[in-house]
Amino acid sequence: MYIPDLYKNEDKEAIRTFLKANAFGILINQTNGKLWATHIPLELEINKEGEEVLMGHISKENPQWTAFESDNQVLAVFTGPHSYISSSWYDHENVPTWNYSAVHIYGKIKIIEGDAVIDTLTKLVDKYEQNSKCPVRVAELSKKTMMQTRGIISFEIKIEEIQAQTKMSQNRDDKNYSNIISELEKTENPQSMAVAKEMAKNRK
Questions:
Q1: How many Å apart are CA 204 and CA 195, to the nearest integer?
Q2: What tens digit of pLDDT does each residue of 141-154 get?
Q3: Pick from 70, 36, 71, 74: nearest CA to 56
Q4: CATH number for position 21
Q5: Which secondary-structure segment (H or E) carries 34?
Q6: Is residue 203 over pLDDT 90?
Q7: How far apart are CA 184 and CA 83, in angstroms?
């Protein structure tokens, strides 16, 4: 993606944190001669070789997986909170814009099988069940329920390139920057308020 230098995010730890917090991404590839996209959780993990990878799975009924072996190049897209920014919030005339964060990961995908499939499903469920009153455990599911794993294709994406952009009004002076935060908070829109929180954290 096009990233102006001002908005380029090269902080590896910040990118890791972003990916873990915004793991519901879009997996994109070429399938049957056209672009194909699936919205799924893509979890940043360490594989058995000690490499950072993305792990995920899709339904066998989804034709996207049929192209994984013939063309293993994929793109994973992740976005965080975003919000419209009105130029009426500035102390000067200008154009409206949009604040957002995004990470694009380019890599090679390969299908995984066997125990590794259950391992990745266990990690996924444990992550999202940790705040449940009665957390589900993969190890406690019946054989009948676990038979459903036969209907998925699990995969690992070897990361080759990361492009990260954080566009949060970095080009504004302190006065206008503070006013943008204040106006975003007034909207009471969860996305806008999340952007305000991110901006406040970035410039104290």
A1: 15
A2: 999 999 999 999 99
A3: 74
A4: 2.30.110.10
A5: strand 34-41
A6: no
A7: 8
Q: Which domain holds residue 187?
A: 5-194
Across the strands, what pairs with 34? 31
| Res 48: pLDDT | 86
Asked whether 179 and 89 are in contact (CB, 8 A), the reply is yes
- Give me the percent of the chain exceeding a pLDDT of 90: 97
Residue 159 burial (CB < 10 Å; 0-12/13-18/19+)? Answer: middle
CA 179 → CA 37, 90, 108, distances in Å? 38, 7, 43
Three-state secondary structure call for residue 11: coil
Q: Note whether residue 48 is domain-resident.
A: yes
Compute the average pLDDT of residues 160-189.
97
Amino acid of residue 157? I
Quick one: tokens of 199?
Answer: 């901006």
pLDDT at 204 over 90: no
